[in-house]
Amino acid sequence: MAQPIKILVLDYFKMSFFYKKFDVLKEFSFERTTSLHKCFIHLATKKPDIILLPFIASENDPEQDLLTIAKTNKIPFIIINSDATQDMVVKSVRDGALDYILTSIEPGRFLAKISSILAKQGKIPPSHEEVEQIRLEESMTGIEKILTVLEKAKEVKAMPYTVARVVSLCSDPGSSASDIAKPIKSDAALSSSILKHSNSVAKYRGAPKVQSLKNAIVRIGLEETKETCMVHAVYQLFDKKDKTFGFDRYQFWIHSLATGIICKFLAKKVGYARLDSALLSGVLHDLGKMIMDDYFNAEYDKIIRIAATQKKILFHVENEILDTNHSFIGGKIAENWRFPDTITYAIKNHHDYARCFPDGGTTFNLATIVFVSNYLAKAMMLGSSSDFFVTPVPDAVWSKLGFSESIPEMFLAAVRKELQDYFSLLKIPKQPATEHSEIINKDMRILVLSNSQVANVYVRIYLSNNNYKYTVAGISGIPESDYDLIIYDFIEELEPIEMEFMIKAATEHKNSPAIFIHGGVNDILVIQKIHKSTKSLRAPLDMFSFDQIIKSYDPENRQFTEVESDRTEEEEK
Fold this sequence. Notes:
By secondary structure, the protein is of the alpha/beta class. α4 packs across α15 (about 295-310), α13 runs parallel beside α18 (about 340-350) and α14 crosses α17. The radius of gyration is 26 Å and the shape is globular.
């Protein structure tokens, strides 16, 4: 008889269902303790097959030593906690955890999750669901990998007939509200969404309540009817079951929907004619990631971990591992669904810098709009697509959008408001965190210094979205005011003499602590000679790390608490 799987649990939460549910399972042997000391002894004397640990927030926490020992001895570990913010999950991925499990999880699901994790580790036989996963062998050539992925992409179910029919009718100028109401009536959930939308108190305050679908369609108009149908349909396609650790379906949906909403707003701002195409392109821009998560999650787990721990752009890691990427796969799905060429092109090329900005950003096509909207959704920290980096956008784009001087609060508020409206419309139980977060240091005065005509818009959107007070300046116009924090935003690497001039000009007046966004080793070596109290981040900017560093700053004591930065070992030396 095979030896049982030895699982060590540091059980601070005293989860009673462990004792009742798992003691009868002969294939598992649980060692449970609430004592950190006993946990160290067990780890030293009996090498467990897997460890369950509480979330470790700081490098100074005593539990950090457990994590270090586990890594050193190559013992896999899972984080188990009562709460799961996006920051916690990202940190757990970067720490090397196999998964993150909430204590409130139903015992049956807990067992299924543990079994799935152990199957991926080769410690127990895989379930039927695991067997259905497609494995890409190392011996496969690049073209074999691509063909395997694309073959699976063809099996993705088509856009529901009801919605396809509604979209077609809404695009036909000869269609009446009665014509459009007929197919909607066949879908109870969709009918409910349309009626709820038309009776929205916020939009139609004081108007009489609409009872019929026909009148609901007349009230909200064909454009909004089509948008509501499309978002409803895509939401139904998004399976909510987590498969790959680090790829959170709930956060992914928020990011996708936010990108679609921003696409619509930007399309209107630049005069793009097809607002419905903009919305749909944005909502579906990362659909290819779901294919990889659904059918290739062993490879996708590896991709997410490499991108998170080595701080690489996910798109590039996909190409390294799969010889293809989510944009290409998403484009193929759009072709299967017979979407217009413009939408297919936008989905397929939204990471292709040359195709998005062929003339430097003076002309907007749909791919450009999706590229910029994806960037803005990340900057506003609306959901997550498991890709934490923002890449540069040409200054000409921000100038054309009117974002050169400041980020309009009305724009940010409108995006958050529409996102909340859609979540209410789709009856999603938990509301996303799209309202202004409470910032402890919101009175902190921040100076953003940049060597470009337009300061890194990501930084300014993040600060605006979180209610920080900030001033933007360039090399030649540094204000005389005192500041609690300076963000040196060098999008391109400067000559050392230029950088020294800029840093000295700012620090001579008041030697404020700084966050330094730089291009490479030369930059950090220069700033370290002049300015010691600094945190550094490499471009392209890592959204998660920037957020962590900003939140770690204590203006009263004028110092940072210990958080991870992007410096390499070479830079630290």
